[in-house]
Design a protein that fits this description.
There is one protein chain. By secondary structure, the chain is α+β, with helices and mostly antiparallel strands. The chain is built from three helices and eleven strands. It has helices at 148-154, 156-159, 161-180, and strands at residues 28-34, 40-48, 58-63, 69-71, 74-76, 81-86, 92-98, 104-112, 116-118, 125-137, 143-146. The strands form two sheets. It has a seven-stranded mixed β-barrel.
């Protein structure tokens, strides 16, 4: 089950019914993360790359510049390279995290509304709207679901049971893909 354009909360733009335009490799986009409530919480540059993303997915390369984080065994260290995968149709995105020497540290997937691309900005802006749950997968096989407490605290089970069910379905799809090492869990150490 995928989130539909009308599932976006007030204040955010609906999804375009048309697919994203072809964006040449090497093009820089601004990537913006929106919190579950719709407010902007992070913005950073990403460069369009060829990383095995099938249509309608878009792959971007970004550099981790924040402080070091250890999220259930997945380390994000300043200077790490992230391959980030976004889709206008799928209710999740994923970051492959690589150490500077090309070693895959693991994958970090976010349950989200489908990503949106604003082509009226310069550079284009890609928005991804976080929806509480995250999945961490490590190369040796460990898989952890994060932030289930945040989803419970949001109260969606009673206030928006359809959205709650869609979030759980997206989590389940990420767990299935992770176990099978299906896209977007396809990259390995370089």
């Amino acid at each position: 089950m995928y989130l539909t354009p009308d599932r976006h909360p007030e204040g955010t733009r609906p999804l375009s019914p048309t697919p994203w335009p072809v964006i040449p490799l090497g093009t820089t986009l601004r990537i913006v993360k929106l919190a579950p409530g719709g407010e902007e919480v992070a913005g950073y540059p990403g460069v369009v790359i060829d990383a095995g993303a099938p249509p309608p997915w878009l792959a971007l390369r970004a550099t981790w510049v924040s402080r070091e984080h250890n999220l259930d065994g997945l380390r994000f260290v300043p200077g790490d390279t992230l391959h980030e995968f976004f889709s206008p149709r799928h209710p999740f995105n994923l970051f492959s995290v690589f150490a500077p020497d090309g070693t895959l540290r693991g994958w970090y997937a976010n349950v989200t509304h489908p990503s949106r691309l604003d082509t009226t900005t310069d550079p284009f802006t890609l928005y991804w709207h976080d929806l509480y749950l995250d999945v961490v997968a490590l190369p040796e096989g460990a898989v952890i679901v994060r932030d289930e407490d945040e989803l419970d605290a949001a109260g969606l089970l009673s206030t928006d049971p359809a959205l709650h069910a869609e979030i759980l379905a997206a989590r389940d799809e990420l767990l299935r893909r992770s176990k099978a090492r299906e896209f977007p869990f396809h990259e390995m150490s370089r």
